[in-house]
Fold Flp pilus assembly protein CpaB.
Amino acid sequence: MGVAIVLGLFAVLIANSWLSGTEQKNALSGTTRVAVASAPLAYGTDITADKVRFVDYPNSAIPPGAFTNAAQLVPAGRKRVALMPIGINEPILASKISGQGQGASIAALLPPGMRAAAVRINDVSGVAGFVQPNDSVDVLVTRTVPGAQQSTQLTDVLIQNVRVIAIDQQSRNADGSPKVAKTATLEVTPLDAQKLALAQEIGSLSLVLRKPGEANNPVVETISMNDLRFNVYGGARYPAPAVVGGFGNPIGAAVGGAMAVRSNQVAAATRSGSTARSSRPASKPADTSRKVEVYRGTKNEEVEVGRYGN
């Protein structure tokens, strides 16, 4: 009996010692109540008291921009909204919500140094409505280049890997279903915003949906009418500049790219087509060549190419 009492007292002393040490450790480190989301908050969701709860965070682990009281987070009569998705039990930070009394502004979503530029789209240029906010796209420009005898159409890669901020006036698609829109708002650099404005005036733009995280193509090409006629590439290849960080890799020479015709490939394609179509004895071939006036910047030259179908 005496042994049991002694052992019991010893256990109580050990427990008190451990609890005392834990309390001293907590007193030294300290904790602070931090606001977290009690439910998932989508973009544009109002921050209200019923969607917030407070949990204890060690003082050394409080994230920058955290809110420590309800009056600070949701002031009376001044609403705040989520500017990006916030998961359940995730700390609500000042960088993820709007200012007091402000709504969900597109401008608040832009990283430093970036711009929001809108482009006109339709059911075709907008990839049949499958382009959604936060997708990555390439932007193509198709324009007509005048020539001495006849004009020709060219298609260039204007910008690679730009983020779609919004489709029409919607910055998120709740159900994810395809929706044909009239405008797409893109996150671009100031220089790319200028390119988009000019390209819309001189030609038509098309969006090309790309796989998330896919690397940019280091070499882009200008496609001309000859590429459709001869099935031989007859455009100009030019290197794409290095990525300027994040989305938005500008293609420096896209709008001013020139068409360089590969006459030897075109002539070879023409000769092979003629052999396959005719087994008649060879006769003096007719003149199947013609000249195309090619512009490179402000200079032009004539390039001789084969005539299609001869």
